[in-house]
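Good morning C.,

I know you're traveling, so I'll keep this short. The sequence:
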Amino acid sequence: MDINKENEVDFMTVATTVQKWGNSLGVRIPKDMAERIKIQQGSEIDLVEQEGKIILMPKKPQIKYSLEDLLAQCNPENRHEEIDFGVEGKELI
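The tokens, ready to paste straight into the viewer:
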């Protein structure tokens, strides 16, 4: 395991072996690397193929807001005046 610096960004290099897993292939992610990027068993990740490289990225959690949560954040300081977008189109006819 090596920690490198490229263009002022730290990155970790780990040698691992590709294994057959059913009809697919899999790799193991070392525990310390998984902890560093905050993933665990069951975490969802994005798998990207780019220019002959495979990039794994943890999926950002999807935050679901309720209308009540959003309206609770409205106050006179962040409210704007009504905006006139002009004449409506034929979609209202």
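Safe travels,
E.
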